[in-house]
Amino acid sequence: MDGKPTWHKSTYSDGGSNCVEVRESASSADVRDTQNRELGHLRVPVSDWVAFLGLTR
Q1: Where is this region: Disordered (predicted)?
Q2: SS3 for 44?
Q3: What distance in Å separates the CA atoms of residue 45 and residue 37, rounded to the nearest whole number?
Q4: Are 29 and 44 in contact (CB under 8 A)?
Q5: In whole angstroms, what is the distance from residue 35 CA to residue 55 CA?
Q6: Angle 46-42-20 (CA atoms, 0-180°, nearest 5)?
């Protein structure tokens, strides 16, 4: 493993057609639609990502 962040399916995905993938680094989190990867991803600062996760748990 080279230490680069890798994409993984979000634990909040339902396993059906509503899935997102996430890759996290020390400075940001990237989020993309599993079924539409070619459309790109959203990048958010890690502090915002942590705050978001805190609201969804």
Answers
A1: 1-33
A2: strand
A3: 20
A4: yes
A5: 25
A6: 95
Q: Is the pTM of this model over 0.85?
A: no
Q: What is the pLDDT along the chain (57 residues), one digit of tens a residue?
A: 456 789 998 776 776 677 889 999 999 999 999 889 999 999 999 999 999 989 987
Q: Rg of the Cα trace of the chain?
A: 12
Tokens matching residue 37: 């990867």
Residues 6+ apart with CB under 8 A from 36: none
Residues forming beta bridges with residue 9, ordered by sequence position: 21
Question: 28-33 and 20-24: which strand pairing?
Answer: antiparallel
What is the maximum span of the chain, computed from C-alpha positions, in angstroms?
32
